[in-house]
Design a protein that fits this description.
The protein is mostly helical and 244 residues long. The protein is built from nine helices and no strands. Helix 5 runs antiparallel to helix 9. The radius of gyration is 18 Å and the shape is globular. The two termini are 31 Å apart.
């Protein structure tokens, strides 16, 4: 139990000399963003995710089979935009060099702009879940989520992919004491799951009980924090900012 708490604490507040430094808490914030944007997309834009692409592959199959409530166009668009965003993050990583903090700061800044555009549309269109606005929102948010996921792959911080939890949850069970493992990194994996859960919960409450684009606004603020934090903390070229 103590090791789990310690692992969680070191994820939130990495000790001096940690290989990934502040990337741990910054990627946790991006995991919260995933929950927020997917809550908006699923509840407001129909049965479509903009960050969790596994669901969209399944939804695409449902739509092709003729299941009601699923859009072939929306799911395919989300998959295409996400892939394009991931490719864009790869280009940024190549052209910005090996500095991990700079790559994260730049891609988070681009995602801020994409999310800001989605917020404006969400507040100015009477029904953002219908017509052309629906597909524009899907494209904007999936493009940003793809950049986020591609960047997380580049940073390669274990168990913090920001958009995919299946392997993280499997790791919780497989490496637990119950599964015969050592229980390593359970605290970090638990925090990743909690971060996405909280993001989805806040996004759903905002969508259902407050204001439709409020969850996107919260996501945009968190992205600003990540962009500014990554740029500031990597300014002096610390060890964690450099790749292996």
């Amino acid at each position: 139990m103590l090791s789990t708490v310690t692992d969680a604490w070191h994820t939130l507040a990495p000790p001096e000399g940690d290989r990934h430094g502040p990337l741990h808490p910054l990627l946790l914030l991006l995991t919260v963003v995933t929950g927020l944007v997917d809550a908006f997309s699923y509840l407001e834009l129909g049965h479509v995710f903009v960050a969790n692409m596994t669901g969209n592959v399944v939804f695409l199959a449902f739509a092709l089979a003729g299941a009601k409530g699923f859009s072939l166009t929306a799911s395919a668009l989300a998959l295409a935009a996400f892939t394009l965003g991931a490719a864009g993050s790869g280009r940024i990583a190549v052209h910005r060099g090996p500095r991990r903090g700079r790559v994260l700061a730049l891609t988070a800044t681009v995602e801020v702009l994409l999310t800001a555009a989605a917020v404006v549309i969400g507040w100015t269109v009477s029904n953002p879940g219908a017509g052309a606005s629906r597909f524009v929102l899907v494209a904007l948010l999936a493009l940003g989520a793809g950049m986020q996921n591609g960047t997380a792959r580049k940073l390669a911080v274990p168990d913090l992919t920001t958009t995919v939890l299946t392997q993280t949850i499997a790791g919780l069970g497989f490496e637990s004491r119950l599964g015969g493992g050592t229980g390593s990194r359970i605290g970090r994996r638990g925090l990743a799951g909690l971060a996405m859960f909280l993001g989805a919960l806040i996004g759903a409450v905002a969508e259902l009980h407050v204001s439709r684009p409020l969850g996107l606004l919260v996501a945009m603020v968190l992205l600003v924090v990540v962009a500014v934090g990554a740029a500031h903390l990597s300014r002096s070229g610390p060890a964690w900012d450099r790749p292996d």
